[in-house]
Amino acid sequence: MNVVTLGMWGGYPNKGEATSSFIVEHEGHRLLIDCGSAVLSTYLTMGELHELDAVLVSHYHPDHIADIGVLQHAAMIQKQLGELHSPLPIYAHAQDVIEFEKLAYKGVTTGVEIEAHATFAIGPFKVSTCPTVHPVYCLAFRIEVEDKSVVFTADTEWTDALVDFARDADLLVSESNVYPQYAGKIQGHLTGQEAGKLASLAGVKRLVLTHLPQYGERSVLVKEAKKEFTGPVELAYTKQQINL
Predict the structure, then answer these.
(1) What is the mean pLDDT of residues 149-162?
(2) What is the distance in angstroms between the CA of the first residue and the CA of the last residue of the chain?
(3) Segment 110-125, tens digit of pLDDT
(4) Mean pLDDT in residue range 228-244
(5) Between 210 and which of 18, 202, 233, 236 could a Cys-Cys bridge form, CB atoms 3.0 to 4.6 Å apart?
(6) All structural domains of the chain with their residue ranges
């Protein structure tokens, strides 16, 4: 299994880059995790739309769905050109019915409802979900194939539920949007130290920090995470590839 970073910013894209989004691929199968601002243009430097098996959407904030519309337009054009032969499934929760219904578009994309605490298959991937703590309903994802696993926290503040959900994962991709001086002041997100605590309690092998703030010294987030987690810690960066 290979995990590729398309973007790592929270809220809005930084200069020339994309909001937090990832590709998970294995033996020719490919999942897109979230599709926020500038994600599609970044992805298209690395692959073709018809090579996607599915899209997973954690929640409906713009930095996670902003490029869904242009992805649908791209799919429509590919279908007209004869390059897209079946609708692209977009997996997401239906707690927000209006947003969920937008995922189906002119026969080129279709919305597939997923629920919390669910486990389902997409190609060779086993996908599990866990609700997070965020101002809107949001799901974390655990993706497993063969004996490898990666967990994406999506957007969340601290919740004990993620400890068991991430248990023994080979890779934890955790949001880390809050510097220590803003702990308790910015809701719905983790500090670097909390991301490290999650990695430590869950016993994961490696920690990558994403959904990063555009301001401040981001190396502080790694330093804070290392107070809790003794394994490898790093900031996500565009086109980073992690082979598990």
Answers:
(1) 98
(2) 5
(3) 999 999 999 999 999 9
(4) 98
(5) 236
(6) 2-236
> Residue 149's closest CA among 189, 198, 206, 193?
206
pTM: 0.97
How far apart (Å, rounded) are the C-alpha atoms in residues 210 and 241?
14
List the CATH code of the domain at 2-236. Answer: 3.60.15.10
pLDDT, tens digit, 9 for 90 and up, residues 51-79: 999 999 999 999 999 999 999 999 999 99
Residue range 155-169: mean pLDDT, rounded: 98
Closest CA to 153 of 91, 82, 204: 204
Confidence of residue 190 (pLDDT cuts 50, 70, 90): very high
Under the phi-then-psi rule, with left for phi > 0, alpha for psi from -120 to 50, and beta for the rest, what region is 223? alpha
3-state helix/strand/coil string of 22-43: EEEEECCEEEEECCCCCHHHHH
**CA 224/CA 141 separation, integer angstroms:** 24
Cβ neighbours of 52 (radius 10 Å) = 21
Please report the beta strands in 114-240, taking only residues with DSSP state E, as ranges in sequence order: 119-122, 125-131, 139-145, 148-152, 171-175, 207-210, 233-235
Give the amino acid at 66.
A
DSSP character at residue 105: B
pLDDT band for position 184 (cuts 50, 70, 90): confident
